[in-house]
Each structure stands twice: as structure tokens, then as C-alpha cells.
Q: What sequence folds into this?
């Protein structure tokens, strides 16, 4: 039997001593069997936590996927194997903290190939698309945007939103009559459209055209901040977070579109934890409020859209507050 097959079998059976000797004799921990499963996935699926740990210690990739996009963490989670799940989650978080491997490849919506801001965009009633038929923003997110607006406006005062898109969150923010409502938008066509729709004439609205990265020094301080851009990586959002201590008033509330790894349940959990840890290191606590989204998302929603950027049943709405204030 090839060493990869032997590893898969020992992993399935939880034979830790066989696993160790196969690893010591150079067994291939990255092997995929005929069903597209790795030894790590077999161990996770059967809840053999010690085997999971041995394979991870031998550099088995925690983020390998089966042909139907299932990871070892998903197997452990679906079967309710808490210990194996915890080992995988901790390893994944450590790996992403150090390497950010998924963050560099994946982002909430779209991808950063080419410069989205130079591309044409197409507007329709229920979505905005980029030139590659990827959705920039979709109407199914309306209830989520309303919940985000409610969160960031809960103290009233001065509100900042980054990324206008379809204006869903901004329309909802207006319902709370904030003292001021600043919107940053970088795409010329989205900007033109919002101006034509009269956003420039609203009394409490201030619109700043440009990339947030280029205009950030002009910003003041805010009671509520929402962040939802397109065509950027997780690392861009992480860079934005570095500015929060200057932008968010004491007691203020920050939230962001939480589409992190929205195509895979386990990766999503990894990124929810990662972003919470990174915000914690800046002095913010993050509460993740579960919102069911299954009912807003029939198959027809994605007709004509190249990539489903969201495939999970629950959306976790982040509400972040300075820890010194929320104590
Ligand atoms: C997903 S949409 C925002 C949707 C919005 N939350 C809503 O409720 O309709 C993202 C928006 O961010 C804009 N954007 C992308 N990169 C940006 C950047 N660096 N600075 C400011 N806006 C940006 C895009 O042009 C797009 O309009």
C-alpha cells in the first residue's frame, strides 16, 4: 500500500503509533485519496484528536479542501468532534496570524486582480456587478445592512461609512438622523450615481470621493463607523483597523461587512476569531451577533453572478467597542 493510503487508513482508525512511524519514515501527509480526502480529513471526520495533532505537527495542510470544498475542520465540526475541532481551529488561527495565507488569496467579495476602481460597473435593481460579472453588492444584503446601521447608529452622533455601493447601509443610517453622516466612495461611476440620486444635497451628509487610504488623514472622529469596500483583501481591512483608535470616539461603535471566507463554514470561523483577536490587540472587544440568512438566499439570487461570495446559513454581525468603555 502506498504510504499516503496507509496514512489515510491509520488516520481513519485512529492508530496513533502507525501514524507516527509512517510520518517518521517520510509518509506524505499532503496525500489526497481517490475521494479527494487527506489523512488529516479522515482523522478529523472520525474525531481522532491525537492523530489530528500529530498530522498537523508534521505540517499536514489544515486548509486543504475536498473537491466539494470541505476542509478537515468542517468534517470535525459536522460530526461534533469538539476536541479535534479545537486542535484544528487553534492551528489554523496560529497559521493565519503568522502567514495570512487565505487572506492573501481570498477576500470578502470579488478579488483584487487588476484594478477594480478603473473598471466599468453595471447597475441593476438588485445588484452592482464589476466587469468580470462578480457582484460588488447585492440587494439580498439589505436586512444585514439595516442591522449594521442600527448597530453603528446606536449612540447617535457622527457616523462614517466607507463604501457606498447600492447605498443600502447609508439609506438605513439616514433613518437614524445622525448629526453628521460621512460617506467615502472611491469608484467614479458609483460616486456619479449617488450624486445623481441626490445624496450630495442631504443636509447632514458629507461625501468624500476617493480611496479611504488616500483620504483618511482628512477624517475627524466618529460615534459609529461602518466599513464595507470591494476588491480589497483582508489585509486592507486590517490596515484600516490600525486607524480606529484615532477615528472612533470613546464609547463609539465599529462594524464591518463580515464576508470573511464566506464560502466555507470552518474558514469563516477561523477568520471571525482572527479578526476578533486582531481588534482585541487594538483594545476593542467584538461581539458577533448571529443573523439567519438562509431565507434571503435562494439559488435565483446568484443568477448571472460569477462567484457566490456567501454560502453560509448564518451571518455574524460584528459589533466592536473599546474594551475600556464596554467594561
Ligand atoms: C460592497 S459595496 C458597499 C455596499 C454598501 N455597504 C451598501 O450598503 O450598499 C463596496 C463599495 O466600496 C467602494 N470601494 C472599494 N474600494 C474602496 C476604497 N478603497 N475606498 C472607498 N471605497 C471603496 C466600491 O466602489 C463599492 O461602492
A:
Amino acid at each position: 500500500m502506498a504510504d499516503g493510503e496507509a496514512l489515510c487508513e491509520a488516520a481513519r482508525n485512529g492508530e496513533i503509533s502507525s501514524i507516527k512511524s509512517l510520518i517518521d519514515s517520510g509518509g506524505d501527509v499532503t496525500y489526497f485519496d481517490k475521494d479527494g480526502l487527506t489523512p488529516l480529513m479522515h482523522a478529523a471526520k472520525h474525531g481522532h484528536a491525537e492523530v489530528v495533532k500529530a498530522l498537523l505537527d508534521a505540517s499536514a495542510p489544515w486548509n486543504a479542501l475536498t473537491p466539494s470544498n470541505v476542509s478537515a475542520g468542517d468534517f470535525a465540526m459536522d460530526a461534533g468532534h469538539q476536541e479535534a475541532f479545537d486542535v484544528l481551529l487553534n492551528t489554523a488561527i496560529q497559521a493565519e496570524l503568522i502567514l495570512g495565507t487565505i487572506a492573501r488569496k481570498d477576500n470578502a467579495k470579488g478579488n483584487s486582480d487588476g484594478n477594480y476602481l478603473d473598471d466599468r460597473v453595471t447597475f441593476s435593481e438588485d445588484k452592482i456587478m464589476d466587469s468580470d460579472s462578480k457582484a460588488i453588492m447585492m440587494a439580498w444584503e439589505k436586512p444585514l445592512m439595516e442591522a449594521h446601521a442600527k448597530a453603528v447608529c446606536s449612540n447617535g452622533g457622527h457616523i462614517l461609512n466607507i463604501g457606498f455601493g447600492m447605498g443600502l447601509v447609508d439609506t438605513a443610517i439616514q433613518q437614524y438622523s445622525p448629526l453628521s453622516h460621512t460617506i467615502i466612495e472611491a469608484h467614479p461611476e458609483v460616486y456619479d450615481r449617488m450624486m445623481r440620486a441626490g445624496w450630495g444635497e442631504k443636509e447632514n451628509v458629507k461625501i468624500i470621493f476617493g480611496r479611504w487610504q488616500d483620504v483618511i488623514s482628512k477624517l475627524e472622529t466618529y460615534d459609529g463607523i461602518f466599513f464595507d469596500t470591494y476588491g480589497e483583501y483582508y489585509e486592507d481591512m486590517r490596515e484600516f483597523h490600525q486607524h480606529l483608535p484615532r477615528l472612533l470616539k470613546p464609547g463609539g461603535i465599529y462594524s464591518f461587512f463580515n464576508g470573511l471566507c464566506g464560502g466555507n463554514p470552518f474558514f469563516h470561523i477561523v477568520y471571525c476569531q482572527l479578526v476578533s483577536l486582531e481588534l482585541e490587540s487594538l483594545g476593542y472587544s467584538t461581539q458577533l451577533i448571529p443573523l439567519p440568512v438562509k431565507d434571503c438566499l435562494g439559488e435565483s439570487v446568484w443568477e448571472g453572478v460569477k462567484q457566490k461570495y456567501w454560502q453560509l446559513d448564518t451571518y455574524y454581525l460584528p459589533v466592536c467597542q473599546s474594551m475600556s468603555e464596554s467594561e
